[in-house]
Structures are given as C-alpha cells and as structure tokens.
Design brief:
There is one protein chain. By secondary structure, the protein is an alpha+beta fold. Helix content is 21%, strand content 45%. A hairpin with a 7-residue loop joins strand 8 and strand 9. The radius of gyration is 21 Å and the shape is globular.
C-alpha cells in the first residue's frame, strides 16, 4: 500500500513538473499572443507616440519604420522645434525645423546626431517589437520561468540577458499567466543596487495583426518614483 501511494505521488509530481513552462516555451506563447501571424519581421508602418514626463513636458514623436527596407524615421516635435532623423540603410539625414543646416550649438544642446538617430532606432524597434525581439541573436533567455507577484498580481516572469557585444542590462518580462500578454518589463544595470526602471503596460493597439501595448508608464525601481508616460496615440500599416 505504501508503494502504491508513493507511486501515485511520483506520477502526480512528474505530471505537475511536465506542465511547467521553460523560458523558451513561455516566450513562444507570448509571441503567439502578440504576433500570431508572425508579421513583426515584415513590419512597415508608422506610430505616433506622445510622451509626458514627471515635469509635465510633452513631446510628440512620429515613427516611420520599414524593417525589410532597413528604413527608420523619427519626427520629434517639442516646444517650438521639430527634429527629423532619417536612416535609410547606411544613409543618415538630419533636419531641424525643416533645414539640414543645423547650428553646432543647436546640435549639441538637443543632441542631434546620426549616432543618436541609430540609438533611437534601436530603442523604438526594441521596445515596440517586444516580445518578438527576444528572439534576436545575442539574447540569452533564462530557461527557468519564475512566478512573482507584482503590484498585487501574479505573473510568469522571464529573465533575459545579452551577450556582451549586444548589451549589459538584465531584463525581466512579466506575462499574464492565462493569456501570456506582456504586461510589465523591468531592467537593471546593476541589480544589487536596485537601479534601472520598470514599465507598466496597458491597453493594446493592433497593427497588421500585431498587438502592441498602447500605454507605457515608466518608474524608477528605486523608491517606485514615477518617471514618464508614453502613449501610442495611433498606429497604422504603410
């Protein structure tokens, strides 16, 4: 009889273990939720993003992104100026209030450069391409899925790091355990210092079959201090 119950316990344990997801399996399920038709790689569209920070300064950014053509353009409007940064494969074009002739002091004060344009291309492509971007080369997805409660809700949490040529930060991605929607992500430069930020995601805009979070609220990890809110006001295919 003792052997029988031990066998039943073993079977139940194996069955329960078999239901646990690996990191890659969780990632695949989340991608299936956000990009069920696999359209991200061929994304060609535009997004209008409005940002308001803790000082109530507003900024509007129109992003044009054509991944197959290696094309990126951002048009940033803030206060009384507009900055256009265009990357067409290896070509870079910068404009300030419609002119390619930009005084050096303006370039320096507003950080207008081709290097910054490339950085912003990577920034927007990464954040608005998640979780699909976690399939990119150089990404190290932890095999173990964690369960964490964050802001009163339980999540399945995926840890990701990067090869040194790609990045140094450690990221955590929080997924709804039923739908596998990505609802929070968090990064640290040095986790022992509790630095970095976390971002709360809400609402969805669907573009070409891809579900992209509409609202992103940014907070510092330390002291839960509010930083800014990004709102994807509209998005469409081109």
């Amino acid at each position: 009889m003792r052997y029988f119950f031990s066998l039943i316990t073993l079977v139940v344990t194996i069955s329960s273990f078999g239901q646990e997801l690996s990191g890659e399996q969780l990632l695949e399920k989340s991608i299936a939720f956000h990009d069920p038709e696999g359209n991200w790689k061929s994304f060609n569209g535009e997004m209008l993003i409005e940002m308001e920070d803790s000082k109530n300064a507003k900024r509007s950014t129109l992003i044009e992104l054509n991944l197959p053509a290696s094309y990126f353009k951002s048009t940033v409007t803030k206060d009384n100026y507009t900055i256009e940064s265009e990357l067409n494969k290896e070509d870079c074009t910068l404009k300030y209030n419609g002119s390619t002739t930009i005084p050096p002091n303006i370039k320096d004060s507003l950080r207008i450069s081709c290097d910054r344009a490339k950085m912003m291309k990577n920034y927007y492509t990464y954040l608005y391409g998640l979780p699909m971007k976690l399939k990119d080369p150089g990404t190290i997805v932890d095999a173990r899925v964690q369960k964490k409660t964050f802001k009163g809700k339980e999540y399945l949490v995926l840890k990701a790091g990067y090869e040194k040529e790609v990045g140094k930060d450690t990221w955590y991605f929080y997924f709804d355990p039923k739908t596998y929607a990505m609802e929070v992500y968090q990064f640290f430069h040095d986790q022992s210092k509790n630095d970095g930020e976390y971002i709360l995601l809400s609402d969805m805009i669907t573009v070409n079959g891809i579900k992209i979070p509409k609202v992103r609220k940014w907070y510092y990890n330390k002291a839960d201090k509010y930083l800014a809110t990004d709102i994807l006001q509209k998005a469409s295919s081109l």
